[in-house]
C-alpha cells in the first residue's frame, strides 16, 4: 500500500496539493476545519438560494478543482481541526463531528492553512461592533445577507474594496471606505499588474459596483473609536491633509493586510516531512495558491522518492503572481500607526485587556525583555487568540523602543501544540497506550 499523505486545509492550495498527490498514486487524506471545502475564497452561504456573486474566473477555477476532487479517491474529513504535532511525531486532529481527538502518522504533511488578517491597534478597536473586514466577509458568505446598520470599512488593502462591493451588491453599501495608503500608481506597478490581468478585471468589477452605489474609496485613517449613548460608534477620522471628521456608525470593519497563518506550526524532529503551501507560506492569492499546492505536492513526491511531473507551469504561474502581488504591496504600502501617536490607554491585547501603557511600563527598566517576560509579566499573547492579533504589534513596538532588539513573533505565539484550543473532553478519547507528549 502506498504511503499516506495528510493535507491540512481545504482551500485552493490544499485541494491542488491533494489532487497532485492522488494523481501520483498516493493515499491522500484532506482535512478541513469548516463544514465544507473551498477555503475563505470559495466560501458560500449555507442557503444555496442566496449565493454571493463572485468573479467568473474565480468561479471557473473552483468548478475545475471541485470536479476533479469529486472524481478522485481522496479521503475528505471536514470539521477536523489540526491541533499540532506531538512529541512522538503523531499528527493530532480534533474531530468535531464525533467530539474526539484522533492521531495520524502520515509519511508527509502538507500545511495549507491560508492567511490571517493584520489589524493595527487603534483606540477603541476592542469595542463591540468593531470587527475585521475578513470577519465581515465571512459573515456575508455564511449568510448571504448584509448585517443591519451603517457600516464603515477602514485600513489598507484590496480586501476593503472587495468587501465594500459585496455589501453594495447585497443592497447595503458601506457609508465609506477609508484607505490608509496614498502610494502613487507608477509605471512599474502598472507593468506588473498587466502580467496578471485577472487582478485588474476583478478590481474594475468591484469599483464599478461601488460607483453604481455612488461610493468611491477615500484616503483617510481612523484616529479613534468611541461608544455613543445610543449604543452606536463614534469614529474620528483624519485625512492625510490633517482635516478631521466624525462619523457615527453601527459597525466598523478594520483591515491592514494579510499575514501567513503559521502560528504554532513548527515541525518536530520526530514528525513527518512537512511542507507549506499557499498563503500560509507566502501571501500571493488564490491563483498562486493552486500552483503552489502542486509544487508542495512535488516536494513531497521527491522526498518519498517518487517521480513528479516535470513541467514548469506551476513555477511560471507563481513567478507571475508574485510580480502582481509585489505591485499590490507597493500600491498599499503604508507605515502603519505611529505608536507615539497612540495614547497609553490604547488596548493592544484584546483578549487580556492589556494596554500600550502597560507595555511601555514593562520596557521602562531598559534591560532586554524576553518573550517569556512579555507573556508572563505583561500577559501579552496569553489570551484565547494566543497572540494572533497582538504579537506582531508587540514585537515591532519593542523593536522600535530597543533599537531593533526584540523577540521573534513565534516566541510569543509559541510553536507547541495545541495550535488552537482543544476541549479537555476530546483527550479522553485517546488510547491510554499512546498519550501525546
From TrEMBL:
Keywords associated with the record: Oxidoreductase
UniProt cross-references to SUPFAM superfamilies, sorted A to Z: FAD/NAD(P)-binding domain
Example of a GO MF term: oxidoreductase activity
Keyword Heme: no
Domain FAD/NAD(P)-binding: 4-184
Record's protein name: FAD-dependent oxidoreductase
UniProt organism field: Devosia ginsengisoli
Lineage: Bacteria, Pseudomonadati, Pseudomonadota, Alphaproteobacteria, Hyphomicrobiales
